[in-house]
Structure formats: C-alpha cells, structure tokens
C-alpha cells in the first residue's frame, strides 16, 4: 500500500511537540532549536529544509532508493574546528535575520534533545584548510607577499578557517529589512516558487524559513580568536559568486582578479596581526543565474556598436527586468555574526555593498579598489560602466569614453 502523503499546510494535532523559537534570545537553549528536518512533521518549527537547493538532490537520493528517508546523521567529531562567538549581535533579533547564529552549535547545544530522538541539524560548519592559488604565488614572486610560516607557507599555501553557512531566514526580520510587510513577503515567496511552500501562506505561526537557495562560505585568515575584540584590525572582501571568472578565469569581468586581490589583502592583514575575512556568496550572475548572465553577454556583444559601457546595465535590464538581484540588504548579517563592528580595509568599490554595511552599524575605515593592472582587457566595459554608475573611484569615465566599444565580439 502506498504511504499516505502528509500535507504540511495546516498545524498538526500534536503542535505541543513543536519547540518554541524565540529569535534573538540571549542563548541557544532560550532561543530554541530550528527544527527543519522532515522525519517528525509535528516537531517542525521552520518552513523548508536543510542544504538549500541541494535538498532536491536528497529527494532524488530517497526517490531512487539510495538514501533512507529516516537516516539520522552521526555528528561524532563534526564540531567546529575553532570556536566562533557568541557575540553580542547574536542576541539582537534585527542584526541577524538571514542565518542562524547558533547554527554551528546545534548538535552540542541540543545534544539532549537529539539523544532523545529529535532530528536537529546544524546549518553552519566550521573547518580548517590550506588554499593555494597561482595569484598568491605570483604575489610572493613579485614581493607583495612573503611567507611567515603561519598564515602563508613557503609553498604558497595560505592557512584558513573556512565556514559553510546555509540560509535561515527569520521572516519578520527579512521583511523589515526590505521595508515590506511579512504577509506580502510570504505571499511572494509562495507564489514565485510555484507554490513550493504552502506553509508560507497558511502557517503564520512558523516564522523561520530555510530557502532553497545557495548559502555562503567564509574564509578567515589569521587567528579567529581575535574576532569580536574591538582592537582587532579587519580586512574584508565580500565576493558574489562568478563561476566563469572565479573558477575558469573567463576574462569578461574582474571577479577572480578582485577575489585574489582581496585574499592578498586578507593575508597581509593577518600577517600584521589582524584578521582577514572573505565572504563568498552563492549569488551567481548578480543572483540572476548563469543562463541570464550568458544571454546578456550575447546581447552585449551582438548589439549595434559593439560591447560598450554606456549600454552595460541596459542590456542586463532588457533580459532580466532588473540590473541586479543580489539584495545586499541581507549581506551584513554574516559580518555581525563574526563579531565585526569595524572594517579597516574593505576590498570593494561597490556602493551597493558599502552602504548596507555602514547602515547596519559597521564602520568602514578605508576602501581598496582593484589595481588597474589586474583588470582583464575584455572587462574594461564592465569596469567603466560600474565606475560611471557610482562605483567608488577617483576617475569617473565621461560619456565619450563610455561610448567607445571595448569588449571583444562573439
Ligand atoms: Zn564575473
């Protein structure tokens, strides 16, 4: 006989099983666990489930009989490689609304409930790694970086703490961040996902949502124990994913060169006794996705007059309807989670990033633009367009300059 389908759209009879969630409470136990697992529907106090978009692969694994739907993770030895926090912002319900500040501590903080059979999972994992990039080797050869045996090794390895973070949205806080009502937000999330999560509109008692989107990875350079100490100097690069450039070195944009430059600045800061922070957000193609991005590339390169800066944003808008969907409003959360109250060197020219950081209460001491020598030839179009649109720069290109085609044809 087929298993009955359990609809999630209305409260279960045993709603008493649902742990209370007090977002912004002073400690993890008071706040309560985020229960977004699927084994015990009456215990769920969140909409959606873990692993972001990868939850769909989990469905395939279950559907194809390769994963038991009731598999419980064994968390032995998985605890964070270094401690992070707690910091004061963790108990401010308005400062962090798009991730669970206690997400890395869930197996530890709720060990008793897990031992008693409740399926509670972490939404953050903290580990250590070595990274090695040819740009760092080049910086060493050119004398901009020197190995110190701790942050940067002779072979070019940089030693990092890396932190994977799944999105966990506190819906009232996300709505407030955008200045809209929670009901409107829930309705659009429901409708624009093709009705994927009915609880968004039927269960106002569930206020936390794990959206099926990419999360982020933090790379820390230097001693993480110095985070949250006001004297600690911080270098920071907030980087939004660009697979074509970041991984494959595609030359139409400045993403990988800027990322490498940010990492160089972070290593430098760590060697001076501070901490370097790279935040890597899965927001491919300004969060428009890679298909849209490649369509825009074609439209730019095929347009009459060739690929030029004056038409750069217009071509994106023609295809996507907007220029950008990254919504940097939520971006500062991770900085508050890391206990950061001041960034001494922000490796970014973007006002779209600068404004939400400073408006969220983090002071920015200096901003570091990308050195001209690192900009690939085909990326001049992008750079000029962004400078003209208000990027932080001392040389804004004029209209005549913007009208010159600088990009390669198809
Ligand atoms: Zn790019």
UniProtKB/TrEMBL annotation:
<dbReference type="Pfam" id="PF00925">
    <property type="entry name" value="GTP_cyclohydro2"/>
</dbReference>
<dbReference type="GO" id="GO:0005525">
    <property type="term" value="F:GTP binding"/>
</dbReference>
<feature type="domain" description="GTP cyclohydrolase N-terminal">
    <location>
        <begin position="4"/>
        <end position="192"/>
    </location>
</feature>
<feature type="domain" description="GTP cyclohydrolase II">
    <location>
        <begin position="225"/>
        <end position="369"/>
    </location>
</feature>
<dbReference type="GO" id="GO:0003935">
    <property type="term" value="F:GTP cyclohydrolase II activity"/>
</dbReference>
<keyword id="KW-0547">Nucleotide-binding</keyword>
<protein>
    <submittedName>
        <fullName>GTP cyclohydrolase II</fullName>
        <ecNumber>3.5.4.25</ecNumber>
    </submittedName>
</protein>
<dbReference type="InterPro" id="IPR022163">
    <property type="entry name" value="GTP_CH_N"/>
</dbReference>
<dbReference type="GO" id="GO:0009231">
    <property type="term" value="P:riboflavin biosynthetic process"/>
</dbReference>
<dbReference type="InterPro" id="IPR000926">
    <property type="entry name" value="RibA"/>
</dbReference>
<dbReference type="Pfam" id="PF12471">
    <property type="entry name" value="GTP_CH_N"/>
</dbReference>
<dbReference type="InterPro" id="IPR032677">
    <property type="entry name" value="GTP_cyclohydro_II"/>
</dbReference>
<keyword id="KW-0342">GTP-binding</keyword>
<dbReference type="InterPro" id="IPR036144">
    <property type="entry name" value="RibA-like_sf"/>
</dbReference>
<keyword id="KW-0378">Hydrolase</keyword>
């Amino acid at each position: 006989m087929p298993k009955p389908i359990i609809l999630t759209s209305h409260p279960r009879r045993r709603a008493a099983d649902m742990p209370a969630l007090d977002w912004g409470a002073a400690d993890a136990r008071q706040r309560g666990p985020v229960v977004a697992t699927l084994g015990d529907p009456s215990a769920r106090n969140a909409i959606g489930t873990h692993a972001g978009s990868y939850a769909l692969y989990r469905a395939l694994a279950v559907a194809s009989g390769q994963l038991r739907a009731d598999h419980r993770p064994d968390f032995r030895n998985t605890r964070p490689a270094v401690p992070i926090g707690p910091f004061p912002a963790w108990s401010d319900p308005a400062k962090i609304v798009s991730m669970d500040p206690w997400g890395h501590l869930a197996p530890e903080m709720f060990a008793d409930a897990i031992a008693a059979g409740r399926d509670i999972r972490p939404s953050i994992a903290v580990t250590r790694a070595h990274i090695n990039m040819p740009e760092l080797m080049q910086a060493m050869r050119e004398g901009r970086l020197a190995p110190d045996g701790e942050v940067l090794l002779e072979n070019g390895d940089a030693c990092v703490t890396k932190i994977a973070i799944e999105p966990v949205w506190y819906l009232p806080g996300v709505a407030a961040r955008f200045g809209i009502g929670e009901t409107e937000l829930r309705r659009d999330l429901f409708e624009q996902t093709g009705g994927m999560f009915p609880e968004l509109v039927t269960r106002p008692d569930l206020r936390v949502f794990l959206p099926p989107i990419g999360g982020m990875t933090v790379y820390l350079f230097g001693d993480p124990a110095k985070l949250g100490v006001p004297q600690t100097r911080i270098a920071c690069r907030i980087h939004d994913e660009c697979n074509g450039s970041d991984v494959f070195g595609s030359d139409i944009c400045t993403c990988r060169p800027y990322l490498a430059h940010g990492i160089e600045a972070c290593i430098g800061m760590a060697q001076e006794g501070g901490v370097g922070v790279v935040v890597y957000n899965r927001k491919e193609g300004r969060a428009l996705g890679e298909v849209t991005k490649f369509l825009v590339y074609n439209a730019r390169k095929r347009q009459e007059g060739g690929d030029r800066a004056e038409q750069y944003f217009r071509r994106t808008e023609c295809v996507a309807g907007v220029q950008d969907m990254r919504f940097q409003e939520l971006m500062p959360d991770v900085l508050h989670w890391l206990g950061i109250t001041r960034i001494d060197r922000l490796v970014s020219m973007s006002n779209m990033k600068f404004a939400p950081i400073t408006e969220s209460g983090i002071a920015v001491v200096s901003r570091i633009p990308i050195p001209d020598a690192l900009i690939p030839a085909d990326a001049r179009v992008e750079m000029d367009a962004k400078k003209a649109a208000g990027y932080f720069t001392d040389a804004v290109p004029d209209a005549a300059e913007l009208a010159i085609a600088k990009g390669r044809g198809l």
